[in-house]
Amino acid sequence: MNICEEAKGAAAIGIGGHVRPDGDCVGSAMGLYLYLKKACPESRVQVFLEKPAEIFSCIAGLDEIHADFATDVEAFDLFIALDTSKERLGGAEKYFDEAKKTVNIDHHISNKGSGDVNYIMPKASSTSELIYNVIEDKALIDEEIAKALYIGMMHDTGVFQYSNTSPDTLKTAAELISYGFDFSRLIDETFYEKTYVQNQILGRALLESLLFMDGRCVVSMVDKKTMDFYRAVPADLDGIVNQLRNTRGVECAIFMYQTNVLEYKVSLRSNGKVDVAKVAEFFGGGGHMRAAGVTMPGTFHDIVNNLSGRIAEQLREKE
Ligand code: 5GP
Ligand code: MN
Question: Is 149 found in the same domain as 239?
């Protein structure tokens, strides 16, 4: 795909990403936004995302995001959904539905393609890597665009460590760091550094974690009361499930936080044997083989029971 071809003649272009935007979602949306503003100067380009976490404030153009999902555009000539299918666009879904033409760019295996034109590459590390691919005129890339895309790639690959990191991922990252931003500082400040409160909740979640299925699964949970006590927001819980997965002998890690009286947001991580995208999809969520998520109704115990049934089934098939 050449995104400039798709954007040809579009007077108003909208860009949206998924609810609770992560590094790849913010990086890909802002990288594409900054690029389209340069590549299509006659078009009005607007980006719709929930307010990104504070750690992403180093990305250029963040204050131009329509975080309230308001616009004076009646119908976009082109709307581009990134890092998700249209169902998780939140307040931007209506703009996608009403747009004259839609493009969907994503790397989630669970996304069957919800645009008129789709570029869904489940093998790609990140949507940010795909944005680099759809930019044909590489000469227009500048330090700010490169930085945004690099942040997205770095977050979705766990600093180029997870198995979604390919030779192409590293070649793209190599091109991007040639623009000269301080990548080492970016990795520290956006990926590893935690606030005191974030570390406290992490410690608590690890302390209260439970091993089950003969030590092949680990689960932990943070309830609403605890979130309120620490004044924590969902983004403060990023990374907990990855730490749980780093437990010797564990095939599958589950972390959940309470979103309502009988509702939890669940994160799943696998060490390879269990396809957690399949588990999440079964309950209406989605993601990748080794990292997926879903919102589920019920008590903590109901949810663990339901998930472990699907996980055990996969382990039985493979052992
Ligand atoms: P996380 O556990 O970090 O929230 O998400 C892991 C992966 O699963 C991400 O790629 C994310 O986009 C995807 N994911 C998380 N929650 C959901 C969900 O409720 N629905 C779908 N379709 N994907 C999700
Ligand atoms: Mn992603």
Answer: no
Long-range contacts (CB closer than 8 Å, 24 or more residues apart) made by 155-158: 155/22, 155/23, 155/24, 155/27, 155/126, 155/190, 155/191, 156/22, 156/23, 156/24, 156/107, 156/125, 156/126, 156/127, 156/128, 157/125, 157/126, 158/242
Residue 21: strand pairing partners: none
- Alpha-carbon distance 47 to 163, whole Å? 30
Q: Indicate the pTM of the whole model.
A: 0.90
Identify which of 42, 2, 25, 14 has the alpha carbon closest to the alpha carbon of residue 132: 2
Q: What sign for the dihedral angle of Cα 273, 274, 276, 281? A: positive
Distance 17 CA to ligand 2 centre (A): 10
Last-in-domain residue among 144, 167, 192? 192
User: 172 and 203 share a domain?
Assistant: no
What is the count of structural domains for the chain? 2
Last-in-domain residue among 161, 192, 223: 192
Ligand 1 atom, smallest distance to 238 CA = 3
| Best residue among 88, 104, 238 to mutate for probing ligand 1, ranked by most atoms within 8 Å of CB | 88
Task: Give the pLDDT score at 318.
Answer: 84
Nearest CA to ligand 1 atom 6: 292
pLDDT in tens, 4-13: 999 999 999 9
- Which range marks the domain in which residue 149 is found? 3-192
Question: Taking Cα atoms as reference points, which of 244, 238, 159 lies closest to residue 197?
Answer: 238
- CB atoms under 10 Å from CB of 112, counted, come to 10
**Are residues 20 and 166 part of one domain?**
yes
Which portions of the chain are predicted below pLDDT 50? none
List the CATH number of the domain containing 284.
Answer: 3.10.310.30
266 CA closest ligand 1 atom index: 2
Q: Can you give the CATH number for the domain in which 127 is found?
A: 3.90.1640.10
Q: Judge if 169 and 28 occupy the same domain.
A: yes
